[in-house]
Amino acid sequence: MNIKIPSIQPHAETRAKQLEAWQQLITDYLKTTKQSTIDVRESQNCPLFNNATINRKLSQESLLIILEEMGKTGRAAPFDKSKNVWEVYWHSLDEWGNMLYNWASSNGLNNTVCTLFEIREGDNTVGEEFHGLDINVLIKALKALEVKGRCELMEFDDNQGVKFF
């Protein structure tokens, strides 16, 4: 079986549209499946990058180009220097932080400590887009919020929490 591997287009305008389309597909897919990481080495096993029906797959090299492009806009970041595993954000860390802050404010939780477990899995967050969010993404979003002086991350009794201001 001869599998065709599409490449990233060389023409600048076509390439920009192709990269934009792939970025949207990736973020939509991860949002739908509630995932936040992509392992480039395992990408050939993912239906998003391997369409057996039409014998097409996205090469690891092309995926890396797409992820690097997403990194330039704050939509992805490599876990390590090898760039094999990437965190992908279907919202920027600032957007996640703003959602969390707005939720805390609208629920009267300013100056109250919430555990990260409560935020990720609590009854009060069911229906919120950040419910079930990957813990690493949650912490990075809260750290971005902390830099702005809108919250403080804290650790206590083998637990992590946040106090919103």
From TrEMBL:
The name this protein goes by in its record: Vacuolar protein-sorting-associated protein 25
Keyword Protein transport in annotation: yes
A single GO molecular function term of this UniProt record: protein homodimerization activity
InterPro entries: ESCRT-II_cplx_Vps25-sub, ESCRT-II_cplx_Vps25-sub_N, WH-like_DNA-bd_sf, WH_DNA-bd_sf
Taxonomic source organism: Papilio xuthus (Asian swallowtail butterfly)
Protein family membership: Belongs to the VPS25 family.
Top-rank lineage group of the source organism: Eukaryota
UniProt keywords, alphabetically: Protein transport, Transport
GO cellular component, one term: ESCRT II complex
GO biological process, one term: macroautophagy
Pfam assignment, any one: ESCRT-II
Record flagged with keyword Protein transport: yes
